[in-house]
Design a protein that fits this description.
The structure is a single chain. The chain is mainly alpha-helical. It has one domain. Helix content is 78%, strand content 0%. The relative contact order is 0.18.
Length: 200
């Protein structure tokens, strides 16, 4: 696998971990443990994900996140708590994927993975906070379920195809930046409308 494809794989999984860190760890580890996927040589660093203890912890986190993410405002609290956890997890996943012996690449992969996870986490957390403002009670659960389905599908495609990994990384990064820009504009419009009008 070339450098571009390898970076695409690391970026895609890091970006997805900003949405669903425990799902990324659990699904990848489970697939490796039961031989559902045969990781190429460059993914040997991910063998640790197949450890029963890692799978158990990720499984508990996955179940907790599944339910917490569908309850209005509890999802915002959950996102706030994971503001540090998801970028660190994304950075470690990227390091495990690239798995170089060169310290320069190790630092680069940590920065890449952490930044990617932080970017997607920021877009997710901001979007969910905006959704919570909606008076409609089911929108939160619908958005959360959509994130579950999309993350699972994109994760499977990322692991299966290096080309898909590069494309998915580009789309996720573009989508996250676009969402943050749109939400910033929306916030500015709302605050301008609520601003008191000065007279005289």
């Amino acid at each position: 696998m070339g450098v571009v494809a390898l970076l695409g794989l690391a970026s895609s999984i890091s970006l997805l971990s900003g949405w669903r860190l425990y799902l990324c760890v659990f699904a990848t580890g489970l697939a490796m443990r039961f031989g559902w996927i045969a990781p190429p040589a460059h993914l040997t660093g991910l063998d640790v994900l197949a450890n029963p203890w890692v799978l158990g912890i990720a499984g508990v986190g996955l179940v907790a996140e599944f339910f917490a993410d569908k309850i209005m405002w509890l999802d915002t609290v959950w996102d706030a708590v994971h503001t540090l956890i998801r970028p660190v997890g994304g950075a470690l996943l990227a390091l495990a994927i690239i798995d170089p012996h060169d310290p320069t690449w190790q630092v680069a992969s940590l920065l890449l993975g952490g930044s990617a996870a932080l970017l997607s986490h920021g877009a997710k957390a901001t979007t969910r906070a905006a959704v919570n403002v909606s008076p409609e009670p089911f929108s939160n659960a619908i958005v959360s379920t959509g994130e579950d389905v999309v993350t699972t599908g994109l994760l499977a495609a990322t692991i299966a195809s290096p080309v898909a990994a590069v494309v998915i990384a580009a789309l996720l990064a573009t989508g996250a930046v676009t969402m943050l820009v749109l939400l910033r504009r929306l916030y500015r419009r709302v605050t301008r409308r609520k601003a008191p009008v000065r007279t005289g």
